[in-house]
Amino acid sequence: MHNRWEITRFVKEHTCLVQIEQNKRRNLSSKFISMSISHLVSNDPEIPVSNIIQEVQVLFQIGLFLVMYKRISILPAGDFCGWNTLKGTIQGRAINCNQPLWQPPFAVHRVCLRHIRANFNKTFKNTNLKSLMWQVRTETKQWKFDCVMKEIQERNVDAYSYLMKLDPEKWTLLHDGGHRHGIMTTNIAEALNSVLKKVRVLPLKALVELIFNKLVKYFHQHREEAKNCVHLFQTRIFDKFLRIEMKSREQKVTTYNPREGIYMVRSLIRIFGMGNNVYTLQLNSKSCSCEK
What we know:
It contains eleven helices and four strands; from the N terminus they run αααααααααααββββ. The chain is α+β, with helices and mostly antiparallel strands.
């Protein structure tokens, strides 16, 4: 411009960095580290995590290296897709792994319902369908499951076909077999991401120190809460037990076989003809015909 130079912003990757950064340098970010070790994963996608940790420790003179490794993936062009994939989901290699420990009964593969709902809503963009899809995921009775699915089919056949193509074991509580213990989302991973979201740009050493200090504060806070707790369980859990106990008082119990722990439970009659359902409870086997 007018044969003069000007100061502007370079939006592409910087290649002017030195080969080795000291462990306290600002440029020593997770992205820079991932660029430095990308060739290791490109050459050997099955490289052990211990080898990667050792390489980072030697390359950057880091005594303590914390890594949350679950998956490494390579883009079609061969570029390493970033350090975030090191703490991504465990799908990919784990699901396709033929080793016995990654297969049932040692491991089962499930999906997050929040992501299923997001994809579903992105396709059909309907609030009512999204609510019905969210409802059907936690139904534990076959007739209720079929009822909600039928309503989805009546509202939108394509939406019904979309859900029917999904493996019901991976996204519905009714067909889960009890493996996910009622946890339908990956909120634990999302919570961790939200905690570290604002500190990802910190150098690795500072990031480790921050995580350590947060853990110390967390344990101290909950230790003090435990000292002041007057119940057997934590207050929130104890309140939940109380709500369940109050609800159980509405049920009528008939003893069938006390030695075998078999009882009949009849639920409270509600308005519009709801309730008054009969279930068989077996305490010894910890099961009930309500399937909850």
